[in-house]
Write the structure tokens for this entry.
Amino acid sequence: MGVNHLGYTYGSIGDLLDTYDRLKGVGVLPYWPVHHGTTLSLYYKDPDGNRLELQVDCGTVEEANAFMAGDAFAANPIGISFDREELLKAYRAGASPETLIRRPNAPISPIPLEHGLT
């Protein structure tokens, strides 16, 4: 068994999306794009099957704590899937960082089998 999970936090949504686009260009795609509420995350697997999370924070520590204490987190502690290509398109079109990291209103994301949790 390898490493269960490594997470890397980017300084901005632009940095995360630029990395997504660069990796996509060499055929490396995330298996799970999910907005957790506190982070917007892209999960990848390395060649050994280790899970890697590339993410950006979606607010301050205080905002994250308030979110996790609220009804939205109680109703959906996993997160919401998002369309990474639509997000990249909006970024390239000049959408504000606040718009890009805003949590969509959608159903709970299923946890993919690749994530290794049942």
Notes: The mean pLDDT is 94. Strands lie at 5-10, 32-35, 39-45, 51-57, 80-81. The helical segments are 13-25, 61-68, 71-75, 84-92, 97-101.
